[in-house]
Amino acid sequence: MTEDKEAIRYKVFNYDIFIRWEPEYNLGIPIIDEQHRGIVTTINSLHFGIESMHGEAMLHPVIDMVYDYTRLHFDVEEDFLKRYNYPNLKQHEDLHRELIDELQRVGRKSVFNHAPLEFLDFLKKWWIEHICEKDREFLDYLAGTLR
What we know:
Blueprint: H1 5-13, H2 30-51, H3 55-83, H4 89-112, H5 116-134, H6 139-145
Helix pairs in contact: 2-3, 2-5, 3-4, 4-5
């Protein structure tokens, strides 16, 4: 006897989203918002892998993807801030370097410990803090500059 479509759909699609994109995460800078959503999508993909018992297999590729994507994102963000003469650019660049270093350190530790959940938790805290706190610091300046 075959299962009905609703039961199959439930089995296949009953995975929670780890980070739901909320409107308050938007900064109002389309390319930066799109990149932030992209990294959140990658974080959610790792969560899906962990939930479906493939977290360790996905860990190294996700670390590489997050590292490369984050460097690209930081380059775009810094270029944007340079274009508008953001006075705290040096501090923001330093923050980016610290975040990249921490990303590498936690990634290596998670691989060594076979702990994809450790990396997932780090990513959630790191990106929500970056999007909701650190990037908001330049919005007031840009709002005044772009008027």
